[in-house]
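In full, the data.
>
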Amino acid sequence: MKKLVFFFTLAVFCVVSSSSYSLTITESGGWFETVYARWLPEEGADSYNVYYSGEGISNKKADTQLIRNYGSYYRVDVPGLKAGNYTLKVVAVVDGNETTDSTTGILTVNAFDRTGFAFSNGRIPGAYKADGTPKDNAVVIYITENTKNTISMEVTGANANPCVGLQAIIDGFKKGKDNRPLIVRIIGQISDPAELYNGDIVVENGNNALSFITIEGIGDDAVADGWGIRIKNASNIEIRNIGTMNCDSGEGDNIGLQQENEYIWIHHCDFFYGHAGSAGDQAKGDGALDCKRSTYVTFSYNHFWDTGKSNLVGLSESSTSGLFITFHHNWFDHSDSRHPRVRFYSAHVYNNYYDGISKYGVGSTMGSSVFVEANYFRNCKYPMLISMQGSDVYDESKQANDYNNMPTFSKEDGGIIKAFNNYMTGQRRFVAYGASGFPNPTVDFDAYVATSRDETVPSIVKSYRGSNTYNNFDTNPSVMYAYTPDSPEAARDKIVQYAGRMHGGDFKWTFNNAVDDTSYDVNPALKSALTSYKTSLVAVQGENAPVGGGDDDDDDNGTINPGTTAHNFTLSGKTSSYFNITGNLSDSKGTVNYAGLTLSICLKIESSTSISFSIAEESTLTLVFNDGFNGRIKINGTDYNASNGILTLNIAAGSYTITKNDTSNLFYISVKSNTTSSIENIQDANIRIYPNPVVNQLHVQANSPVKQLSLINLTGTIVMQAEGNNVEFIDVSQLKNGTYLLRVQTTEGVYNQKIIKK
């Protein structure tokens, strides 16, 4: 529960001089093309302004959405900066006036590593320039749990304008008629948006070479929770600094390049377990980051956390020509297989860290040519495999090859792996072409080990199955890009420091090498931690409602109306701190459109089903069933009839239990107070309540005397009350952390505001 503190004061608010007090910055620093700072909440501050300076910029104001409240501290992250030195100035705002401020020391910003095939032919994928600053005429949108379905934008060529919701905006670019670079900034933990394509946000721009799209997370805690990202028919796409977890996409991939894509860069992302698929090898989800029918692709500085099938490259291309992909500086952290598994492609796999791999590292099939260079392999069972030969078919018990029963990962035709300057320790087996001590090593080999990076692989080196040769793409100057590899040891150290989201992300986990190096089963403790993950983000500046992590008790599509408590089964399942819900969910009872929401998951009203709650005042109860449902439902033992799928009922203060009469499907429930005003009325009545969230005291400022302040918990119980001729404050420092409704009674009326106690 979140902690709430109230202090009410009816007084003229005084502007505090910045010379009298100093705002306290507790942490600041630079990252890749980003600066950030954290600071302590300033007593009495309504909001904050942040200004950044450096590299020719002087006191430029940061977007207000970049300023976030985490209860015990605030944080700002400013992306889109070129490499260099900067400072941040944080200023407290009280009653519309800037007051106290504090400035950081010098913050050093580094450039992202823009290396790999994605940058071929002069392309810079995404909506940022090569120097890290936004491309000309770029437009920025901010996506939070509260705005994911309501964000709107006019897009040239869209079927209808304005486009409303994240997917609708991206769909507007589908025809490739809007050439403005688009930057989508993800803030906090985002549960499933209302509009998805089979569980995915789908990114398309009609392969428009003049279109550029970046989807990026802000700070260290941006999470796509439950949904995937699918890229198809797209050019110049960048995805960065996002954690993907609990993916339940119908396509199966956390992030997937599905068809006809080019110049794609995915980097500094965290890949966690998805939901189990139907196949035995999908217990940890299907693909983490897959690439099919796409070219000029770079995957770099990503962190794969015990993923099962990490990177599939190629599926049905049926050609080895013109398909290029780079993997560099990725951390395969106790993941199982496919790092990558390559069909058809020319793949450069360099400077990656294979850290306790239970099945295999790099796999080559279907005529692919894979250059595996300067990687660090620690306890990787089979560092490299070519289908149907070498270690792929070796039976340790027989000390012989068994082509019928032993293929480790595939029975497809083989490709060829060229290896150079890799460090290996703790592997089960690795067979270099022509190495002594192995059976038939010019046929049954795992890789051709070159003596130099520029060595060409001779045509006599062929795969056992399919007789495929290496195409030597890496020594072809018309194809290969410029790069400078790190040593394997230096690459490992760099990866541990920089792979994944900023500062390694907010989700922390330590593997047990003694167990996890060889196990490819789901780690139940890790799985539990991921499914129970909740953001610590409280609010984004400029929004009236707390952001939440997708299961907020007031989950009315992310929008909180004071005096209303709603539960959307599609978004939140049976999880609620207001309603006590028992019964079974279903996603096969059709869909219902209600109040702008698309509802697809319901609670089945059966004999075992019950919903109970309590209210402190007269309210309106609304139940939303399937369209056309005219049956009965019991409320406190009394039958009530729905009309065309809706039941609306006025109920008095008290406790209520909803149970079955007729079998039905409940998609949505809300309880709205009949005696309270909305947040707009708070503002219209010139009532100011601050700070919110609050720690010790909550202030109130009003034009008319405050007679009573009541603090009500989510069960409808008044837990604190202050009365008088002119109530000025309430001290809630000893109140339990959580979400509360504050009722303000003045001589003019009664008003409500949701409050967070931290």
Q: What stands out?
A: The first strand starts at residue 25 and ends at 31. Confidence is low (pLDDT under 50) at residues 1-20, 544-562, 676-681. Residues 682-757 form a domain with the Immunoglobulin-like fold (CATH 2.60.40.3080).
